[in-house]
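INTERNAL AUDIT FORM
Audit reference: QA-55
Scope: verify that the stored structure record matches its stored sequence.
Auditor: D.O.
Record contents follow.
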Amino acid sequence: MIFMKEFDELIKVIKTLRGPNGCPWDREQTLESLKPYLLEETYEVLEAMDYADERLKSELGDLLLHIIFQADILEEKKIFEIKDVILSLKEKLIRRHPHVFGNIQVENTSEVLSNWEKIKKEEKEHKNRVSILDGIPQSFPALLRAEKLQKKASKVGFDWKNLEDVFEKVKEELKELELELRKGNQKSIEEELGDLFFTLVNLSRHLKIDSEMCLKSACDKFEKRFRYIENRCNMERTNSDEMESLWNEAKIMLEKK
């Protein structure tokens, strides 16, 4: 297959880069040093997914580079190699889809996800987990981690029964924040603000809205409106009332596009 030929050639390129006569930077990299680059590339893939064009092809390539790069580091340590990663993934996909590759019958997506979790619990890397919350990386962005924690707890019934209860909790947390603001205790203010953020993620989850994407959309909207203001005035010579007027103008003009 042409694809396998190209894949093998890509692996050879990476091995050459990390070889004795390769690139000094590539040879110096470790799993730890690659972490920030992997995170950066992941976010670049997410942004490129909004366009779904040639940019995404390039960013997916950069992400694939990290996978092969890390596998090569582990191969040098004689732990595993890229073919083991591929084999492990293939086996996992077959194992976790018994309704496709086996005799299990499912009626809907909910049953698929339920079976997925049951199978996952029996896998070697998950058997030592003692809490339902185990397996959620602390390195996750806070919004994503909050959502994952809430979803896990919800699976065993620890959740708000309806949307109205969540709204009441948001109001309660806001009042508690206002109280601490009047007291002026910085540590308590931070704690209550964190509780409010966490409850807003709960609200987002109950509304079936991805909190991360929701906030991203708000950031994008703010950026567009602010750039509109920048393009129509001298920021250093414009007062707040004039900026507010331009902001309201931006809301109208940009919504038309």
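Auditor finding: record pair retrieved intact. The first helix runs from residue 2 to 17.
Action required: none
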